[in-house]
Amino acid sequence: MEFKHIFSSFKKLKLISNNFQLKNTLKHFRNKTSSGLQKLAKSLMFPIAILPIAAILSRVGGLMMTKDFGITENSVIWYIGSILQVINGSVFDNLSVLFAIGVAFSFAKDNRGEAALIGFFAYTILIGLMTILPKVFYSTILLDINLENKSKLLYQLKGNEVFYSIDMGVLSGIIAGILAATCYNRFQNIKLPTALSFFSGRRFVPLVVILVSLPSAILVAIIWPWLQLGFLSFGQVIIPEKVDSSTRHIQWGVASIYTMLNRALNASGLMRIFNIYFFWQHPFTTSQNGTIINGDIPAFLSNDLVIGAGLFQSGFFPIMMFGLPAAALAIIKCAHPDQRKKVMALLLGVASVSFLTGVTEPLEFSFIYAAPVLFLVHIVLSGIISAITVGLGIRIGFGFSAGLIDYVLSFYQSMKIAKITWEPGISQIWANPGWILPIGILGGGAYYFSFNYLIKKFNYQTLGREQTVSEIDNLDNSLPLSSYQLLAREIFDILGKDNIISADNCITRVRMVVKNVDAGKIEQLNKVRFKVRKIVNKLNPKMVSDKDLQLGIGNDAQFVVDELKKCFNHQRAYNKEEGK
Fold first, then answer.
1. Was domain 471-578 assigned CATH 3.30.1360.60?
2. pLDDT, mean over the chain
3. What pLDDT score does 31 carry?
4. For 85-122, what is each residue's pLDDT tens digit?
5. Which one in 73, 288, 535, 571 has a CA-CA gap of 20 to 30 Å to 266?
6. What is the 3-state secondary structure (H, E, C) of 116-131?
7. Which residue in 396, 397, 393 sits closest to 421, CA to CA?
8. Taking residues 511-528, what's their average pLDDT?
């Protein structure tokens, strides 16, 4: 009996040990995955940063070539519009290339230009192989008489013409960029024998890319045709060839769920990865000849009118132009009277940014951690408002984000899309983008009253309601952080000079990889207040994994990171001088 008891105890200890190892393995996998996704989200900002200017040029150029405005062909205005459209086309026709270069450059450990060049090289190989390899595997699979007895996996109808349809869109650039950067990071320092020394180091990486690209392309060629067929089938369900009142419920439901998930992922910055499919990959069919255009944004900006384009963008306009600014007003109203002016100085600025440009992160991060329930309410309200907007049939898009600037520039295109999407009559009346304004006002009211009620009811510690003496009182005396340099030094000192592994940024956040951060350091970061462009901000630190730390800076995040890197370089130089 004693032996059985010992054996049973041993089995329990072994089970506990295995569970412990499993938990550690899962934790390690989660951290590595989170870190990789964060790095990918950051890398996508390089090519995406180019798109707002291109989109504005596209809309302005299109308006300058519109005959409805009395502009005649070959006039001076028409030619200027043509030039702007060519500039726009140079960007949107090469999106995949831009993503390949941007992702490779960002993933490379040293961010050198060679990595970007190798990313482009990997992209050309992948695209070239994808014109051949899928035919090897699927030329006799799913044959269709309407496609001249060719495979549905590989071909589509374009009017009366059958064409080879394998098109990976921006995903081809992302895959090529990751592949190139992985090879670059692994082999950039390799040393070969003297006879082959010319190919040592970074010059060896293109050779590796050639060797790795073939098996990678074979794997992609096996998987992608099925994914593409699934994407097309999904696209035809939510945006069928004939869109009418019987299909609207599908679209507003899809748009509502998408909008809520988009806002929920905004806290971690991963919504950019989520947006890749809907904004840049989801297939749309043009109304003229059945050509497929990948992505909701290119579809809306296309000169060929696309039925339903703007489905995944329309719902954001009332939220960003009215909803979140109204939430800011509620936070100002709920601030203590002696703090209200200072909170107003902060939030009116970021609310105006949200209204004009659609950049919402600084505003959302003012309550996202202080009162998570408010963030949950924001997610739910955004889904409801998006459902109403899309349900009415409104289809409006943006090149950057859903602010007033994009709303004005996209208004005319939205009305043209409504005319080809909906039957004349009440459907087109409801689909007029002018309804964005009353929807936004009503949505703004819902945001204001719900935020106002919840903040007071549960005494949430939003800006100006801190129970302790607010650091905002001593802002100008204790920490005159109008300087990016001083803010960077503050962050550097709090985290510790040997604790920071790397720092980078997206549009509004500093992304740092750290060795460890305890609760005390997070609390210190929470207390930091700084001024940028006369606006008071909080860092709102968040650990997205064990080693990944994000700080909410606002649109000037890049400049703070530049100063942080100067601190790193200064410390390295000091350590070298001291022989450490």
1. yes
2. 80
3. 60
4. 888 777 778 888 988 998 888 888 877 888 889 999 99
5. 535
6. HHHHHHHHHHHHHHHC
7. 393
8. 78
Between the alpha carbon of residue 96 and those of residues 39, 46, 49, 279, 349, the distances in Å are: 18, 12, 14, 13, 35
pLDDT at 12 over 50: yes
Please, are residues 227 and 283 in contact by the beta-carbon 8 Å criterion?
no
> Phi and psi of 293, rounded to 5°?
-115, 130
Which pTM does this prediction carry? 0.71
Residue 302 has phi, psi (to 5 degrees) of: -65, 145
Terminal Cα distance for the chain, rounded = 61
Closest CA to 107 of 37, 207, 7: 37
Burial of 65 (0-12, 13-18, 19+ CB in 10 A): buried
Closest CA to 340 of 454, 170, 473: 473
Pairing mode, strands 161-164 and 155-158: antiparallel
Q: Which of 534, 478, 525, 477 is nearest to 499 (CA)?
A: 525
**Would you call 241 helix, strand, or coil by DSSP?**
coil
- Whether 495 shows a pLDDT value over 90: the answer reads no
- Average pLDDT rounded to a whole number, residues 302-311: 83
| Domain segments of the chain as ranges | 45-241, 242-449, 471-578
Name the β-bridge partners of 164.
155
Token readout for 166 is: 């394998």
User: What's 286's DSSP letter?
Assistant: B
Looking at per-residue confidence, does 347 or 211 come out higher? 211
Chain mean position to CA 533: 25
Rg of the Cα atoms in the chain:
27
* CB atoms closer than 10 angstroms to residue 454: 18
Which H or E run contains 424? none
Q: β-strands 155-158, 292-294: how paired? A: unpaired
What span, in angstroms and rounded, lies between the C-alpha atoms of 4 and 20? 24
Residue 538's H or E segment, with its range, is strand 535-538
Identity of the residue numbered 352: S
Task: Report pLDDT digits (tens) over 154-190.
Answer: 888 776 778 888 888 888 999 999 999 999 988 888 8
- Cβ(354)–Cβ(320) below 8 Å: yes
* pLDDT tens track for 249-262: 788 888 999 999 99
The rounded percent of the chain whose pLDDT value lies above 70 is: 81
Task: Determine how many CB atoms are found less than 10 A away from the CB of residue 88.
Answer: 24
Structure token digits, residue 73: 């062909």
- 291, 283 Cβ separation under 8 angstroms: no
SS3 260: helix
Listed residue (548, 375, 391, 524) closest to 450, CA to CA: 375
- Report whether 388 contacts 287 (CB < 8 A): no
31, 14, 19, 68: which is closest to 545 by C-alpha? Answer: 31
- How far from chain centre, in Å, is Cα 4? 58
3-state SS assignment for residue 297: helix
* Angle at which helices 205-238 and 170-187 cross, to 10°: 150
CB 355 within 8 A of CB 321: yes
pLDDT value of position 540: 73
